[in-house]
Amino acid sequence: MTTSHTPDSLVREFISLLVSRDLSTAAAMVTNDFEYDNGPMGKTFGPEAIEKTLSGFFGMCTGIDWVILRQTSSGTLESGTVLNERDDRIEIHGRWTTLPVAGVFEIRDGKISLWRDYFDKQTIIEVMTPPAG
Amino acid sequence: MTTSHTPDSLVREFISLLVSRDLSTAAAMVTNDFEYDNGPMGKTFGPEAIEKTLSGFFGMCTGIDWVILRQTSSGTLESGTVLNERDDRIEIHGRWTTLPVAGVFEIRDGKISLWRDYFDKQTIIEVMTPPAG
Fold first, then answer.
1. pLDDT of residue A37
2. Residues 6+ apart with CB under 8 A from A113
């Protein structure tokens, strides 16, 4: 992490690392008491939450292309808030689909202390379910 | 609407009007081509979308208390973006429940041109279904 980050650029780098499947570098960007609230899917905690929650899901994806549609922020790297709207595009079961997501991030002392995503659970379940036949 | 609004305060006033069930004044704050994207529940358009989508739902609610937990914005009243995280608390079927929601708002020429909410559809359906017995 460079010192030139803003809350906005910190979250953009974090998302970019996830998209490139670099979960360990992404995990180094979160606080020890990091909360990953995956909305209707439940919560996990600490830097290990990244690997724990995403490695299985990413293992199912043959392509990952999360696009930040809108992102606004307030505060500083010491204490900041970043909200975004994303199209989390993934290739799974041989086809690209889009998961519409809104994300909430809290920044504390240059690290991400909260990541909460809002989305429709049924949409995710349908995407993850292999097509019949 | 006073001229002292910012994108942030415009959306706060809009939410406040909805909470006080003043749907007609809220509808006057949106553009003629306003898009109300109620996420997994579908889209409606124009100022009439407010009444159309919310009057039935609000009619089921004996109490409405939407709380903005976090809100960030960018741009100006001429062209701005506001993202928020809310607890949309409602009293329905004799009990208070919370609908966790993330909202996206676009501002154009001093009016709201887009309102998109992200939430879990099943959570809303369960809240709206009368308890058995």
1. 98
2. A30, A31, A33, A34, A35, A106, A107
Q: Which of B118, B121, B122, B125 to mutate to test the interface with A (most CBs of A within 10 A)?
A: B118
Q: Report, as an integer, the average pLDDT of B17-31.
A: 98
Interchain CB distance below 8 Å, B104 and A100: no
Q: Which fold has domain B7-122?
A: Nuclear Transport Factor 2; Chain: A, (3.10.450)
Report the residue from B74, B121, B123 with minimal CB separation from A72: B74
pTM of the shown model = 0.95
pLDDT at site A31: 98
Q: What region, left, alpha or beta, does residue B28 occupy, with left being phi > 0 and alpha being psi -120 to 50 degrees?
A: alpha
Q: Domain A7-124 class?
A: alpha beta
Domain ranges of chain A: 7-124
Average pLDDT, rounded, for chain B? 95
The verdict on a CB contact (< 8 Å) between B40 and A118 is no
What's the complex ipTM?
0.94
Strand ranges, E, within B20-110: 30-37, 43-45, 61-75, 79-92, 95-108
> Between the CA of residue A93 and those of A51, A101, A121, B61, what are the distances in Å?
22, 20, 18, 42
Which residue carries 């559809």 as its tokens? B121
Closest residue in A to B121 (Cα) is A120
